[in-house]
Write a structure and sequence with these properties.
The chain is of the alpha+beta class. The protein has one domain. It is about 15% helix and about 30% strand. It has 1 helix and 3 strands, in the order E-E-H-E. Strands 2-1-3 form a 3-stranded antiparallel sheet, with no helix packed on it. A hairpin with a 4-residue loop joins strand 1 and strand 2. The longest helix is centred in the middle third of the chain and has 10 residues. It is flat, with a radius of gyration of 12 Å.
Length: about 60
């Protein structure tokens, strides 16, 4: 896994919530963060791709302005 990209943030419009998944905890071996593998992971987590937006990024920091 690219160590710089280790968090997926999900905007779930169906639930009206924001979720984050830390991918550097060792639970995903051989991770290759491309669109297809990220979407497969999100589907496995129970998300409906038609009701979410997601991004892969460095850390779990939330910036509030």
């Amino acid at each position: 896994m690219n160590e710089e990209l280790r968090t997926i943030t999900v905007l779930d419009f169906e639930k009206g919530k924001v979720f984050q998944h830390n991918l550097s905890d060792g639970s995903i071996n051989g991770w290759n963060p491309n669109d297809e593998s990220c979407e497969d992971f999100l589907i496995e987590q129970g998300y409906s791709l038609g009701n979410i937006q997601w991004m892969l990024h460095e850390d779990a920091t939330i910036y509030v302005k």
